[in-house]
TrEMBL record, chains A, B, C, D:
InterPro entries: Class_I_gatase-like, ThuA-like, Trehalose_catabolism_ThuA_prok. This is ThuA domain-containing protein. Residues 233-256 are annotated as: Disordered. It comes from Coraliomargarita algicola. Residues 6-222 form the ThuA-like domain. It comes from the Bacteria.
């Protein structure tokens, strides 16, 4: 029996093919960079999947063997099949962990699970980002101090169109004057969700130690305790019920 | 200018046409009963809408003039058009209040906003339901004491597949041995959502004073403060930014 | 019967007496400045109270007639009597609203209600503060746009030692590189609590329009719906109970 | 180095000495029963402490070596020293886990951390309690099915005077017609808190397998990730600040 944590890193994998700068930072794609640093954990087993594979690399076999799914998408959110999104959602609700990165704030799967717009302010520029640790006791932030900095990143600013997070982990300061809730968690069904802001494709963000540490911690935090398929059972009484006062003239037409 | 709270009561309106018992309780449909008791409030202006009307009675004109939408559906959730659901969701996110009743737990609009299964246990039987007030200071529960009882209701039982509520208002006790979170609120975007459990079609639940009081209170609580359409703006810096160290060899391909 | 909202503004009122700069900004004390702008609301009735009055100006008569209490303290938190803190806490739990300003983060009453350290980073300096609106639909933020700025303020930085807020309203950006959850709400018992960060005594913060607007809104938001004194009742069964199998040999010693 | 989870079980230990029925169920005290079943876990190291020991058995040495503290108290809450309560609170805020059982809802330490009344309805009677699992994915509920029953227990009923829980784990149904939030969690500072309702002293509740399972799981869930003492640092700027426009005529009186 395989007791390792099964991690699938999903990447749109388009910028890397069309933009030489991105290709120079992530020659084999961001998914490979992420899988490589996660693969250093002895108890993680890594797989990758990308948009242009059949079923986006997320067929039933892959999904049912994924404990934690990591998601990066941006320019092609609209090309992700609604049927696959529905299958991923089903897996999260039955227990699979989900880590959504950066521009994945607009991924269909993230919006479907949160139920909100997930909109924000943004600017591609020369901002420095400083991420403040607002919950130092959280498993995802172990090894991270009071704050860390990313020398250059795309700016994301408030208001961020999310439901109030279950746990507020990181808040970013940007040179240009904005703030952003950069790390936050939610539970949906039996699955745990972590959103982590950094990771613009034109910067080497996923090569940075603190970013790698947080994603690595998040995988362990998000692993499922259960796999409980959805059901809505007709359920017999556990205690005696009164007689039905209208038992004789009750309509016989069922309607559930 | 109309400063009344514009309320639209939406009802599937099918059980009333096919089931004589339901028709005897709600001769003009549940929506009419609900609109009638709400209409006694001097500051409420009532409209109704039903599944079989064009656009389910929820065209753009109606939706844009609705402050609070009440939703009852059951046997025909699947017949509600996805396009209408999307429009209703957009209105909630920009500020419209939404009150979801009873079997509306499985309405497309409720599941789309909460992001979860919204499944539960259920039993049509002779249970008495006693609803306990867990937040007596809440505006929705003013005029309700420690608890109230509904002589006979369908049972809904935990676990209820919802995200942790923002506010936990009511918990039900059922004769047959179950419990249920019968009143709860969430914020999604700029809109407020209230789920209220009672209202099985074969019982005269919406004729009961406490039930009417709670729905009446909920309308006032759910009225919007704002109407803010979704946007995701490119946003100029408010503070001076550093020079771009790579300004000369930056790729020119835009990607947002 | 008085149907106005009864507001009591409490101020430590010490800096104004010892520091000429503070005295020049608030010649009659911060409480008077705050009471004056709140007093412009036709439905607010204002009272002030200060540390050096008997019972700190908060005797039973005053407290029982206060709907919303505003609290500013800093250099003399330790001089506030524990007995008065206990009385204020009792009033909040039974329904009174509480608005805690700036250095009141370390007031005994705030720490007693939140249960945490309420610690933070701080710096008296030349920072500009920009407060971002993270919940534009909230009643407290009506009339406030995406953000507003305070030209010079003391810096407060994360981590802020508070329980996860019920509602996250404002996040501050500071020139020096920090962020802070500057507006947040909690419910404790039947009372509503709003913490609002700005208001260092050496700056004219409470003369600024946006700051006045937020405090004015907060009073209306925090007004009580109920006044429910604490009780812990022995409560008879509402449904038939089984016979006690050990009725005959049950010990007679009471223990509650 | 000791890498086991250090657990201290604290018990008031009075009922066992004065009430023969309680003594017959827990001859060596509830703390011993609880320590014995927890001691079966290979990675737990157990200690007990009781009210009548010096410093209630909770001197600095014990507290600083406790990862998770379990608390049962009832008839003598008032005899617990405020100084010890303050030390326990400090330890929770810096990271120690706390599990509060049954009548501990009224313990000074629980009320000090939650900030509310913690009041409830109650009845010593012949009720059966059925605890419904509202969050089956939670680590504390692993091995517990949809529900479990305790044949006879004291009734606790809503409203329960607690802040909205971070996680809602269990809701109880009682024969007599009440419901109660029987399992819930909060974070305070860096520490995790779990309240678990069952455990009236005249019933053999802590001998029941499901109850033992939940407390055993809760210890592992509550163990600290960090130990962070409180501080409130004066913090230098990380970014350049503007000149102070009033540098020359700034008052020199410090006030923090």
């Amino acid at each position: 029996m395989n007791t390792k944590i099964q991690v699938t890193v999903w990447n749109e994998f388009r910028h890397e093919k069309s933009n030489p700068k991105v290709a120079s930072i992530y020659p084999e794609g961001m998914h490979t960079t992420i899988a490589n640093f996660l693969g250093k954990e002895a108890d993680y087993e890594l797989r990758t999947a990308t948009l242009d594979e059949p079923e986006h690399g997320l067929d039933g076999e892959v999904l049912s063997h994924t404990d934690v799914l990591i998601w990066w998408g941006h320019m092609a959110h609209g090309e992700v099949s609604d049927a696959i999104v529905e299958k991923v959602k089903t897996r999260v609700l039955e227990g699979m962990g989900l880590i959504v990165l950066h521009s994945g704030h607009y991924a269909k799967i993230f919006k479907a699970l949160l139920g909100t717009s997930c909109s924000l302010k943004w600017r591609e520029s020369t901002d420095k980002e400083r991420l403040w640790n607002t919950m130092p006791s959280h498993p995802i932030l172990q090894g991270i101090g009071d704050y860390f900095e990313i020398p250059q990143e795309e700016m994301y600013g408030e208001p961020f169109g999310i439901p109030q997070p279950d746990e507020q982990l990181l808040i970013s300061w940007f040179t240009g004057g904005e703030v952003f809730r950069s790390g936050a968690t939610w539970t949906r069904g039996h699955g745990k969700i972590f959103y982590f802001r950094p990771g613009h494709e034109t910067y080497p963000t996923y090569h940075q130690a603190e970013v790698q540490k947080i994603i690595t911690n998040a995988v362990r935090w998000a692993r499922p305790n259960v796999c409980i398929p959805d059901n809505c059972p007709n359920s017999p009484a556990l205690e005696p019920l009164p007689e039905d006062p209208e038992a004789d003239n009750r309509p016989t037409i069922g309607h559930k």
